[in-house]
Amino acid sequence: MKKNTIMGAVAGLALLVGAGTAVVAQDNGTTWRSYGQNPGATNFSPLTQINADNVHLLQRAWTFRYGGGTDNEGDRGLDHRWEVTPLVIDGVMYFSTPTNPNIPELKSTITALVPETGEVLWKWESERNIHGRGIAWWPGDETHGPRIIFATDKGYLAALDVRTQQLATDFGQNGLVDAYVGVVSETVGESRRDTYTIPNPVAIYKNLIITGARPGEMGPPGPRGDVRAWDARTGELVWNFHTVPQPGEANHETYVGDEWKDRSGANVWSTITIDEEKGIVFAPVGDLNGRAQGPELYANSLIALDANTGALKWYQQITHKDLWDWDMPTPPVLVDFKQGDETVKGIALPGKQSLLFVFDRETGRPLHEVNELPTPRSDDPNDTAWPTQPFPVRPGPLARVTMTRDEIPNITPEQYAYCTAFWDENNIEVTGLYGRPKLSNGTLSFPSTLGGPNWGGPSYNPNSDVFIVNVQNMGQFRAAGPVMQGFGAPRAPGQPAPRRRVVRDGEAITQSGFQYRVNADIVLPCTPTPWGELVAVDISQGEILWRSPLGSIPGLETDIETGSRNLGGNIQTAGNLVFIGASNDSTFRAFDSRTGKQLWSVELDASAHSTPITYMGRDGKQYVVVTGAGGTAVAARRMSDTLNAFVLP
User: Which are the contacts of 636, defined by CB distance < 8 A and separation ≥ 6?
Assistant: First the structure.
């Protein structure tokens, strides 16, 4: 690790926490203290200076570039994406920056800015690539100053002392904890270190750092996906919850023979939510790597753990035996569930499959009734899909879960002709939610492997009880053929071959799957528009309040509100606003949270696949900030390195 680089005479302004003083920021709108604004992941701000009446006046305040550059070469890879949500603590903005494989000399950093101007206060450079979509803040205690907690490649957890802008030498080994060694057996050894990391901001509870993991996606033998807690002062392991039950643990009997052994996956690659008052950790556990005969506990489950001990309080499996890649990407959100005159403390979780579950935080009891219902079957006798899945009665699917041939959109004559012909030639059967491949004909299930909702994170306004999440409305085509262990099906020998056409400049365009490629930059799904939406739900009533198209297709001339693919999150404010980037059209938007009407937008240098923040500056002005750097699985080719701030004139 390299020493920090002090940037200018203003560096001392960052040292706002005196020696031996533990400062806990109050939620008064001046701070953004964690990835979801608060440990409950509500992504809500009480600020009203920017509101639905004046948001159209927003203008750029400043732009920061970390040095990754701008190009049109497309995604730089999972480990080099900049999807960061900054923190604002005690008048200073903090965030991490990644490396760029095309710029070998560029180092990952922890950077501190003046949040009113974007001026760099200080920058610490790392010898290892810093992973994830953000950092975490531990405020310190009587003997330790505040620390920034983050993860690097090869499975290391790190703590940076904010007062010295150096690694905290009494944390682990000179500021680093090797989180990989505790989740691998001798059989696995070092073989998976390069694919193991802690990919998202960790959770902080008192003096504990609570972590998930990204152990890689290969089958066993591999690293376990355990949820663990570490002492924020020393880096020592405090507790460890096995997401695949080990011998002697509850639910271990759901695995047959050695199915449990060295089983990877069943990991929290999203973010963990904390109920600080009740001392509960809520962890959304993703899918298992490889199959087991049983329901594959605790994969695809929301687990509630005692934050002090790691003991299991309750769990709810959202998808049994996940064959669809619906791997629990969205953070759970603390909500207030109103039942008559009573308010129940709830936890809300939307899944990729577009269903929204709400549970009692303490008991796991569903607050909207959940029924276990039969799901579509394959005609392949080797299919191992679980026969039933849980369905909440309200509010119903947030994203599209079916379509008919008549709903194929007519965007252009060529696109419509291709999509309808593809439907007919593959004899498509719409299997809908939890649909399975078939031997006899092509199938179209909903949503696709990208969701529905995805990792960006919903928002919740405790004053209005409105929960808002962005979704994608695209299906998953599978050719006729036998089922696979993974999330697709092979192309059967009789399937129609991809078609090719030549566009005006002579470029050969390959057409394949249930989508139409106009050119190298424009791909039109054959599923109905809008392809991206923002959806608002009354949590307690379980009613969808409104839907609004989200996104557009740059370069496409049409009057249809197409929406677009989107990855990223939204925030709400008490000014009746929703702010969101997410869409792959390089646009940052504001909507009226009461009606879904778009009120403002601005073009960025690249798409904002991130979650924005807002805060009140020391100058008395409210700022809105978002990272716009492109990348992700749905991105356009435009890549950049900008952090963008907006303010009223």
Answer: 521, 554, 584, 585, 586, 606, 607, 630
CA distance 48 to 132: 30
At 584-628, the pLDDT tens digits run 999 999 999 999 999 999 999 999 999 999 999 999 999 999 999
Alpha carbons 596 and 346: distance in angstroms, whole number: 25
| 508-511 and 499-502 strand pairing | antiparallel
- For residues 149 and 138, the answer to whether their CB atoms sit within 8 Å is yes
Could you report the per-residue pLDDT of 52-97, keeping only the tens digit for each?
Answer: 999 999 999 999 999 999 998 888 888 889 999 999 999 999 999 9
Alpha-carbon distance of 384 to 254, in angstroms, equals: 15
Which residues, listed in sequence order, are joined to residue 167 by a DSSP beta bridge? 160
In this predicted structure, what is the pLDDT of residue 67? 95
Q: Can you say how many angstroms the Cα of residue 235 is from the centroid of all Cα atoms in its chain?
A: 26
And the tokens for 19? 């020696």
Residues linked to residue 173 through DSSP beta bridges, in sequence order:
176
For residue 519, CA distances in Å to 382, 473, 501, 586 come to 39, 22, 10, 18
Degrees to nearest 5, angle at CA 636 with 74 and 332: 105
**At 14, is the pLDDT very low, low, confident or very high (cuts 50, 70, 90)?**
very low
Res. 492 pLDDT band, cuts 50 70 90: very low
Q: Check: CB of residue 627 under 8 Å from CB of residue 85.
A: yes
Q: Cα torsion for 339, 341, 345, 349, to the nearest 10°?
A: 30
Q: Classify 510 as helix, strand or coil.
A: strand
Contacts (Cβ under 8 Å, ≥6 apart) of 67: 97, 100, 103, 106, 641
The pLDDT mean for the chain works out to: 91
Residue type, 234: T
Taking phi over 0 as left and psi of -120 to 50 as alpha, with beta for the rest, 476 belongs to beta
Is the C-alpha dihedral spanning 34, 35, 39, 43 positive or negative?
positive
Q: Identify whether the C-beta of residue 270 lies closer than 8 Å to the C-beta of residue 246.
A: no
Say how far apart CA 472 and CA 267 lie, in whole Å: 24
| Partners of residue 227 on adjacent β-strands | 241
Dist CA 465 CA 462 (whole Å):
5
d(CA 240, CA 252): 16
Longest alpha-carbon distance in the chain: 72
CA–CA dist 607, 125 (Å, integer): 26
Taken as a whole, the chain contains a residue count of 649
Q: Are 137 and 94 in contact (CB under 8 A)?
A: yes
Tell whether the model's pLDDT for residue 491 goes beyond 50: no
For residues 88 and 134, give the distance between their C-alpha atoms in angstroms, rounded to a whole number.
12
Structure tokens at 401: 């879960």
CA-to-CA dists, residue 437 to 160, 400, 407, 480, angstroms = 49, 19, 22, 7
Structure tokens at 413: 């004559």
C-alpha–C-alpha distance, residues 644 and 425, integer Å: 47
Give residue-wise pLDDT tens across range 135-179.
999 999 999 999 999 999 999 999 999 999 999 999 999 999 999
Q: What is the mean pLDDT of residues 418-424?
A: 96
pLDDT in tens, 31-56: 999 999 999 999 999 999 999 999 99
Q: Of 133, 416, 451, give the one whose Cα is nearest residue 286.
A: 451
* CA-closest candidate to residue 447, choices 386, 402, 389: 402
